[in-house]
Amino acid sequence: MSTIHWTEGHTHQSARWHSENSTPLPRRVVLADDRMRADQACRHAAGGTALLWLGGDFHNARQLLGAMGRRVDRGPRRAGTSPSDAFHLHRRAKGQRAGVLGRLLVLLGDDYTLALRRAPDVRQACLEAYGPPRGPVVVSLRELLGVIGAHQWRLKGVDVPALGARVHPHYGVFAPVRGEYVDLVARTPLRPVPRTAFDLGTGTGVLAAVLARRGVGHVVATDISPRALACARENVRRLAPSGRIDVVGPCLFPEGRADLVVCNPPWLPARPTGPVEQGVYDPDGAMLDGFLTGLAAHLRPGGEGWLVLSDLAEHLGLRTRGQLLAAVRAADLRVVDRIGTRPTHPRAQDPDDPLHAARGAEITSLWRLTPAG
């Protein structure tokens, strides 16, 4: 357990250090309050010094964070000579930005109280994200704002037209805000309706609930994330008839075989920098490969697998269609059908997005797979 130290007046203070994206303990800490200017804050943060906001105003701290972000964004940006270069430069710039902004810190008390003027009550949001308090803890303001936002998403939920209901994501669990992959699973014909189905990497449990609503007799949903397992259990209790869905894990495949195995793995073979990014980035395509290599052994005779996958990685030069099809063949599988749809999320139509060309060409597909034999 890391401990962060600072000096307040002539008194040495300390607290636990917590970072969801495993940011190392800051080398040096200085105190900051409403008198701190954005230029000064950026110089400290860019040099590796953290700023612990004590005794100031919460909204002023947020404004300082925004001003720091605008200054970082004004810095020079290299243009990529290829889609792959553009992606890696974009990721590097995002990482550097996160590193600078992540050095503006706040102190949470014994019960997650944020003792700043005009501060919101963050205790419930922190309890949901971090679990029971274990004494004072220092976190980045940027992370805390994400925790607050996740709590609001959890209360409000995400509307899922395919269910006619809302799904409530937890902190660190990818929210089903991109509805095209849900719609693909909701509308692809079931011939016949399976008695059993597996939903691998269930996240919020949204696809498991869709399958149950479509009449699948028994759905087993899995995930490797304890947060996702808790989130899915909470959602399926509300969304599915009692006993139709079991949530198990942490694992990829559950025991046994199914008539249908559905998997919507993270779409980009790159390393995530935090828990939320685990829904988008799959290091070295490990989950995709695990699904393909394990599928045949977990299908009942006549069963099939549904791989729901964006081709964004292909447009970014991170994976080719040939490599995907070769992996399918190597797993002794064959493609029965492919149903595709274009994304409708705002970033696909944003010309200022550095990855606009790739996003504009993106197709999300449901690949129907069966054993080759």
From TrEMBL:
Residues covered by region (Disordered): 1-22
Superkingdom in the source lineage: Bacteria
GO process terms (BP): methylation
Any one GO MF annotation of this record: methyltransferase activity
InterPro entries reported for this sequence: DNA_methylase_N6_adenine_CS, N5-glutamine_MTase, SAM-dependent_MTases_sf, Small_mtfrase_dom
Polar residues bias locations: 12-22
Domain Methyltransferase small: 194-310
Keywords attached to this entry: Methyltransferase, Transferase
Name the record gives this protein: Methyltransferase
